[in-house]
Input
Amino acid sequence: MQEREVVLTKREVEARLVPSGTEIMIPSDTFVTITQSLGGTFTVAVNGNLARIEGHDADALGKQPLESSFETPADGTINENQVWEALRNCYDPEIPVNVVDLGLIYNCKIENGTEDGNHIQITMTLTAAGCGMGPVITEDVKRKVEHVPNVDKVTVELTFDPPWNNDMLTDEAKLELGML
Output
């Protein structure tokens, strides 16, 4: 993660307000402050609000999109380490810790050679049940795991049983958040 950076938008860009998830359009030539740039997405401060801009719109901020470069396993199966690496590139737009270290991933089941091809089933939660960014975060998880080689289908199930709590954070996450 880099320090805060003020940039001028190069073009109109779609964003989602944090934490509500409401879609907004940020006009071209608007000053925004990049507060978080992790996992290929950007959290910006604009007009007194936080908003998330997806990586495919990085050019609107004068940035390059994050390229994922996984080697394709020759045997046609899914590499589990690549799946976890993709998950570690998914971030809550308000918290500088990935969803794995936050303890949001409850289960990741990889099934090679099913009737749907190579299928990944992910069960996850959010830090708060009413989080407006929940659909954005779960879609980010799905999209990034779909880019792992040999993945044909990804299913993400959101659950709140058990409810998330601070004990689910890894020690690295607690250190990053000043809890150790």
Observations:
- The chain has two domains: 5-61, 80-176.
- The longest strand covers residues 105-114.
- The chain has a mean pLDDT of 94.
